[in-house]
Amino acid sequence: MRSHEVDNHLPSDTTIHVEARKGASTHRRWRVLALSIAVTLLLGGGIAVYRGLAGTPGEATDISAGSTSQYPNGRIPMSALTEIEEGFHLLPEAASSYLELIDALESAGHTATLNSAYRSLEEQQELIDDFGLLEDGGTAAQVGESEHGDGIAVDLTLNAEALEWMRSHAGEFGFTETIASEPWHWAYTG
Question: What are the residues whose beta carbons fall under 8 Å from the beta carbon of 108, sequence distance 6 or more?
Answer without folding.
Answer: 165, 169
